Automatic annotation (TrEMBL):
<feature type="domain" description="Carnitine O-palmitoyltransferase N-terminal">
    <location>
        <begin position="1"/>
        <end position="47"/>
    </location>
</feature>
<keyword id="KW-0276">Fatty acid metabolism</keyword>
<dbReference type="InterPro" id="IPR032476">
    <property type="entry name" value="CPT_N"/>
</dbReference>
<keyword id="KW-0496">Mitochondrion</keyword>
<comment type="function">
    <text>Catalyzes the transfer of the acyl group of long-chain fatty acid-CoA conjugates onto carnitine, an essential step for the mitochondrial uptake of long-chain fatty acids and their subsequent beta-oxidation in the mitochondrion.</text>
</comment>
<feature type="domain" description="Choline/carnitine acyltransferase">
    <location>
        <begin position="473"/>
        <end position="706"/>
    </location>
</feature>
<dbReference type="GO" id="GO:0004095">
    <property type="term" value="F:carnitine O-palmitoyltransferase activity"/>
</dbReference>
<keyword id="KW-0472">Membrane</keyword>
<feature type="domain" description="Choline/carnitine acyltransferase">
    <location>
        <begin position="174"/>
        <end position="449"/>
    </location>
</feature>
<keyword id="KW-0813">Transport</keyword>
<keyword id="KW-0443">Lipid metabolism</keyword>
<dbReference type="GO" id="GO:0009437">
    <property type="term" value="P:carnitine metabolic process"/>
</dbReference>
<protein>
    <recommendedName>
        <fullName>Carnitine O-palmitoyltransferase 1, muscle isoform</fullName>
        <ecNumber>2.3.1.21</ecNumber>
    </recommendedName>
</protein>
<keyword id="KW-1133">Transmembrane helix</keyword>
<dbReference type="Pfam" id="PF00755">
    <property type="entry name" value="Carn_acyltransf"/>
</dbReference>
<dbReference type="InterPro" id="IPR023213">
    <property type="entry name" value="CAT-like_dom_sf"/>
</dbReference>
<dbReference type="GO" id="GO:0005741">
    <property type="term" value="C:mitochondrial outer membrane"/>
</dbReference>
Length: 723
C-alpha cells in the first residue's frame, strides 16, 4: 500500500473539522521531474522541426545575411534597393524606437525575407536535382559528364549534416507512367508464361483497355497525383493491408532474426533489459529526428515517412477495414510470459530506466510463480485469427469497464515483448534448428506473437514494478478458442527451410560482372524450373523511396531472357559460352527492370491504382480483373544487411544477421527471402505449405543451392570459343 500511496500527489480526508490534505513530497517531485522532461522533449522536437524546415540552410546562415545587410548600411550601401526604407515607413512610430532602431528592425525583416526566399529557392533546386535518376542507369564504373555535375551540385546543397526528415519536402512525387508504356511492359512480362493462344487473348484485352477504358481512368489518376503526396501509398495501405480480412499471422507478418554467430548474454532478463533500453534510445533519436536518413551513394536521400510509425502504433480491427492508432509517445511496455500479461513502466521521474532496472523488472516476471488466469494464456489468439471475429469480440468484450481500460493500456504501449520459454537460434550440427527458429518467430504458439486485448485487474502503482492483467469471460474464452484453432491450422501448415549458403558470396558474384541480386534471382528461376518443371509469375519487392512517401514496387523477375538462360542450362547442345551470353542478357534485363521500378516506371502499382479508380467509377475492366487475379507463385525479397551504419561489419564480421522471412503468398507457391551477408555468406529463408502437393521447402532449398553452384561454374574458367 505504501507504493500505491506514493503514486498519488495528494490525498484528502473529510473530517468533522473539514478537509484534511496530505501531500506526498516524493510524488510531487516525480510529477515535477516528469513535467520538466516532457517540456525538454517538446523543445528538442521544436528545434529539430525548425532545422528540418529550413534545410539546407541553418540559423547561422540567417545571422550571416542579417549581419551582411547591417554592415552594408554601415558602409552607406543599400542592398535592398529601397525596400528597407519602405519597410521602415510602414513601421509604427514610437518613442521606444528611434529612427536608427526602426532602420535596424527593417533591415532584419528584409534580411529574413531574403533568407527565407533563398531557403525556398535552395529547396526547389534540391527537388529538381533529386528528380534526376540518370545516375542509376550509368554503366558500372563509368559516369557521364551530366552525372558528375549533378553529383557536385548535390554535395554542395547537402553539405550540412541532415536530420531524418531534412529532405522530406524536397523529395519528388512519384510520377504516373503513361498507360501505353505500362501495358507494353506488362505484356512483355507475361509473354514467357503464356502460350500463343492465351497471349493473343491477353493482347486483345490489353488493346481494348488501352483504347477505351484506360484514358478516362488515367485522367483521374493524374488528378490524384497532383493533389496528393503520393498517388499509390494511401490506396496501397488501405486496400492491400487494412481492408484485408484474412489473418495477419503468416499472411502479412514477417520476422527478423538476431545475430548468426553471437549471443551477447544467455541471461534472459539481462539481455531483455539491454535490448529494450537500446530500442528506447533509438526511439528517442527517432522522435527527435536525429537519425540521419538512409542515403544511396551517400548523397541521394530515401523517404523516411514510414519511420514515424515504427513505435507507439497499433492496428485496430474493424468489420470492413482496420485502422491505425499512432501516439506521439508511450511510457510503458506490454510483456507476455508463460500465458501471463504484464504492463512494465519504462520511465521513473521523467528519466528512462537503466538496463539494470529493466532487467530487475523482467526478472520479477520470469520468477513469478502464479499461473495464468482462466482464458488468459491464449487470449492473444484473437489477433491471430480472421479480422472480423476479432473486431466483433473487441466490440463485445472490450468496449467498457476494466477490459476497455486494459485494451487502452495495451494499444498505447511502446511495443510488445515476449519472454519465451524455449531458446531458439543457430546451433552448428543441429539439423532443423533454423527452420524451428523461423517458425517460432513468424507465428510462435499462435497466441504469443501479436499484441492481444486483455482484461485488467487493479493497477499496482510504483516506480518499477510489473503490472499483471486479468482474465476473460466464458463467452470470450469460446471466441478465443475458435480463433486459436484457425490460427494453429494456418501455422502448422507452414513449411520452412532456412539455410546458410557459404560456398561463395557477393565477392565471387561480382567477378561474374553482375549484381548479386540479379545472380540470385536468375538462380531462383533455374531452381524453380527444376523444382516444378515450369515457370511462374515471380514477385520481387523493390522500393520507391526515392520519392516522397514511396513504399514498394514489383519487379517481375521471370523474363524472356531469364527463361532462355534456364532452358539453355537443361540443353546439352548449348555451349558454355552461349550460356554465359544468355546469363549476362538475363542479368542486364533484371537490373534494368529493377532500376525502372525504383524510378517510378514499374508495372503493378500503376495497374493497381487504375483498378481502384475503375471500382470508384463503377467501370468493369476484364483486363484489370485478369491482371489482379494472377497468382504470385514465387514471391521473393532481399533483406538489406545494413541500412544504418550502426557498426562496422568489416571489423566485426561475427555480428552478421541471418535476415528474416515471410510466409508463402500463394497456397501452391514459395516465399523466398535472402540476405547477402558479407563476401562469403548468403542466407535463404524458404516457405511453402505442407498442404500443397506441388511444394516442398527443403527440396526447393536444395535446388537453390545447386542452381547457385551450377551458375558459378560457368565463370570458373575462361569459356570455350563459340562457333
Amino acid at each position: 500500500m505504501a507504493e500505491a500511496h506514493q503514486a498519488v500527489a495528494f490525498q484528502f480526508t473529510v473530517t468533522p473539522e473539514g478537509l484534511d490534505f496530505h501531500l506526498s513530497r516524493e510524488a510531487v517531485k516525480q510529477l515535477y521531474l516528469a513535467g520538466i522532461s516532457s517540456w525538454k522533449k517538446r523543445l528538442v522536437r521544436a528545434k529539430n522541426s525548425f532545422l528540418t524546415g529550413v534545410y539546407p540552410a541553418s540559423p547561422s546562415s540567417w545571422m550571416v545575411v542579417v549581419m551582411a545587410t547591417a554592415g552594408s548600411f554601415y558602409c552607406q550601401v543599400d542592398p535592398s534597393l529601397g525596400m528597407i526604407a519602405r519597410i521602415r515607413h510602414c513601421l509604427p512610430e514610437s518613442r521606444l524606437l528611434s529612427y536608427e532602431s526602426r532602420t535596424m528592425v527593417s533591415a532584419a525583416l528584409f534580411s529574413t525575407g531574403v533568407w527565407l526566399s533563398a531557403v525556398l529557392l535552395f529547396r526547389q533546386a534540391l527537388k529538381l536535382l533529386l528528380s534526376y535518376h540518370g545516375w542509376m542507369f550509368e554503366p558500372h564504373g563509368k559516369m557521364s559528364r551530366s552525372t558528375r555535375i549533378w553529383v557536385a551540385l548535390m554535395k554542395v546543397l547537402s553539405i550540412r549534416k541532415p536530420l531524418l526528415y531534412s529532405f522530406q519536402t524536397s523529395l519528388p512525387k512519384l510520377p504516373v507512367p503513361p498507360v501505353e508504356a505500362t501495358i507494353t511492359r506488362y505484356l512483355e512480362s507475361v509473354r514467357p508464361l503464356m502460350d500463343d493462344e492465351k497471349y493473343s487473348k491477353m493482347e486483345a484485352l490489353a488493346k481494348e483497355f488501352k483504347e477505351k477504358t484506360a484514358p478516362r481512368l488515367q485522367k483521374y489518376l493524374i488528378l490524384k497525383s497532383w493533389w496528393t503526396t503520393n498517388y499509390v501509398s494511401d490506396w496501397w495501405e488501405q486496400y492491400v493491408y487494412l481492408r484485408s480480412r484474412s489473418p495477419l499471422m503468416v499472411n502479412s507478418n514477417y520476422y527478423a532474426m538476431d545475430f548468426l554467430y553471437v549471443t551477447p548474454s544467455h541471461v534472459q532478463a539481462a539481455r531483455a533489459g539491454n535490448v529494450v533500453h537500446a530500442i528506447l534510445l533509438y526511439r528517442r533519436k527517432l522522435d527527435r529526428g536525429e537519425i540521419p536518413p538512409v542515403m544511396a551513394l551517400g548523397i541521394v536521400p530515401m523517404c523516411s515517412y514510414q519511420s514515424e510509425r515504427m513505435f507507439n502504433t497499433t492496428r485496430i480491427p474493424g468489420k470492413e477495414t482496420d485502422t491505425l492508432l499512432h501516439l506521439v509517445d508511450s511510457k510503458h511496455l506490454a510483456v507476455y510470459h508463460k500465458g501471463r500479461f504484464y504492463k512494465v513502466w519504462l520511465y521513473y521521474g521523467g528519466q528512462l530506466l537503466r538496463p539494470r532496472d529493466l532487467e530487475l523488472q523482467f526478472q520479477r516476471i520470469l520468477d513469478d510463480p502464479s499461473p495464468p488466469q482462466p482464458g488468459e494464456e491464449r487470449l492473444a489468439a484473437l489477433t491471430a485469427g480472421e479480422r472480423v471475429p476479432w473486431a466483433e469480440a473487441r466490440a463485445r468484450f472490450f468496449s467498457h469497464g476494466k477490459n476497455k481500460a486494459s485494451l487502452d493500456a495495451i494499444e498505447r504501449a511502446a511495443f510488445f515483448l515476449t519472454l519465451d520459454e524455449e531458446e531458439h537460434g543457430y546451433s552448428p550440427g543441429r539439423e532443423g534448428c533454423m527452420d524451428a527458429y523461423a517458425k517460432s518467430l513468424l507465428h510462435g504458439q499462435c497466441y504469443d506473437r501479436v499484441p492481444p486485448p486483455r482484461a485488467m485487474g487493479g493497477l499496482e502503482a510504483g516506480a518499477a514494478h510489473p503490472v499483471r492483467h486479468g482474465c476473460a469471460s466464458p463467452q470470450c474464452r469460446a471466441t478465443i478458442e475458435g480463433s486459436y484453432r484457425l490460427a494453429k491450422a494456418l501455422a502448422d501448415d507452414v513449411d520452412f527451410c532456412c539455410f546458410q549458403f557459404s560456398d561463395f558470396g557477393k565477392g565471387l558474384i561480382k567477378k561474374c560482372r553482375t549484381s548479386p541480386d540479379a545472380f540470385i534471382q536468375i538462380s531462383l528461376q533455374l531452381a524453380h524450373f527444376r523444382d516444378k518443371g515450369c515457370f511462374c509469375l515471380t514477385y520481387e519487392a523493390s522500393m520507391t523511396r526515392l520519392f516522397r512517401e514511396g513504399r514498394t514496387e514489383t519487379v517481375r523477375s521471370c523474363t524472356a531472357e531469364s527463361t532462355a538462360f534456364v532452358r539453355s542450362m537443361g540443353d546439352a547442345r548449348q555451349t558454355r559460352a552461349e550460356r554465359q551470353r544468355l546469363f549476362k542478357l538475363a542479368a542486364e534485363k533484371h537490373q534494368h527492370m529493377y532500376r525502372m521500378a525504383m524510378t517510378g516506371a514499374g508495372i503493378d502499382r500503376h495497374l493497381f491504382c487504375l483498378y481502384v479508380v475503375s471500382r470508384y467509377l463503377g467501370v468493369q475492366s476484364p483486363f484489370l480483373a485478369q491482371v489482379l487475379s494472377e497468382p504470385w507463385r514465387l514471391s521473393t525479397s532481399q533483406t538489406p544487411q545494413q541500412q544504418l551504419k550502426l557498426c562496422d561489419l568489416n571489423k566485426h564480421p561475427d555480428l552478421v544477421s541471418t535476415g528474416g522471412g515471410f510466409g508463402p503468398v500463394a497456397d501452391d507457391g514459395y516465399g523466398v527471402s535472402y540476405i547477402i551477408a558479407g563476401e562469403n555468406l548468403i542466407t535463404f529463408h524458404v516457405s511453402s505449405k505442407f498442404s500443397s502437393s506441388e511444394t516442398d521447402s527443403k527440396r526447393f532449398g536444395r535446388n537453390i543451392r545447386q542452381a547457385m553452384l551450377d551458375i558459378a561454374k560457368l565463370f570458373d574458367k575462361p569459356a570455350e570459343k563459340a562457333g
